[in-house]
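Researcher: Let's try something more involved. This one mixes different molecule types, so please make sure each is placed in the same coordinate frame as the others.
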Amino acid sequence: MASTEGIFDLIIRNVRLEKQETLTDIAIRDGRIAAIEPAFRCEALENIDGGGALAFPGFVDTHVHLDKACILDRCSICEGSLAEAVRETAKAKAGFTEGDVYDRAARIVEKAITHGTVRMRSFVEIDPRAGFRSFEAIKRIRADYAFAIDIEICAFAQEGLTNEPQTLHMLDQALSDGADLVGGCPYTDPDPFRHVDMIFDLAVKHGVAIDFHLDFDLDPGHTNLPAVVAATERHGWQGRVAIGHVTNLSAMPLADVVTIADRLAKARIALTVLPATDLFLNGRGHDLLVPRGVAPAHVVAGRGVVTSIATNNVMNPFTPYGDSSLVRMANLYANIAQLSRDEDIASVFEMVGHSAARQLGTPYGMSVGDDATFVLLDTTSSIAAVREIARPIAGWKNGRMSFDNGRPRIHKMALR
Ligand SMILES: [Zn+2]
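Model: All components are placed in one shared frame. Result:
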């Protein structure tokens, strides 16, 4: 137990911690959790009643595109295909200004904060169309919202490298100027294998992690995954590579998925599943019995792969919906994957929490001594949170309240 001498900055009383029956109090001093104890008998400058809410270390969004969010007003969607989404967004991107990217990204980040997200990896496209305008805007966003959320920036080649050598030089420059990691997209490059190698070369040069958009179709026979696994092992980059989408896993027999998951686990490559986008863009050729086209994240996680569920796009041709709520995304995944058992639902919560934090390599915990960064959810357990899409009530970062949604109140009629 921590020292109880002196006055604490803040005590949040009557909160529930995962897997604990009784309510407890959390005392905070100097931005850290100083004590966790039921009915804590100490003074604090401020006391807040948690009202029995679930306290947890917050949601972690491993994959979001802040730079191209909220552009439905300047794009048209006729086919609803991946090719059209890339094409329409590329057209819009040429017209992005730094201020425009900042304003749209701020809208998404503020929504994410009020939905209890405390950490986020944003891809930012840096190429001849976008220049460094989006990158400069998202760097300002990262600094301006650091009071509530940690944002890492992935310098991203959405539209190929071998066909646009200038992009490679621009990514190189961004990695020397504040980008945290590098991202590639082999499926839009005329030479996907060379693309993978070029991204690895950049990562090795700068000593950073890698995040690929990969195998975004429903053809199990068409894959760039073995190339990524081989390069990861060749460069000794185990634990520093993530892959997103990999929707062709949804078109494979379970035995094949298990084989691939075991290869990912061995190479310590993380998988991100993006249900909103994958559902919207896949299976367009089907008139009926449309496939879901979402990789079976729970199966892959069950084989020991670090697996997350993330937002990806909001209000653009890749995903013309969205509210940046990860608990809603977790619920969407559980629903389409037809999960019902408590242990499966618990694993889905991990994919927007602990497992997502592992993917980003960030600390994540609620013990004495940890940063006082946590969120209150209006529910009794993480399993109930996913099932019910629990409401985030309030959150703190390093002991400072970062958002407060209040509690809903029903104004009942007086009984006669
Ligand atoms: Zn993406």
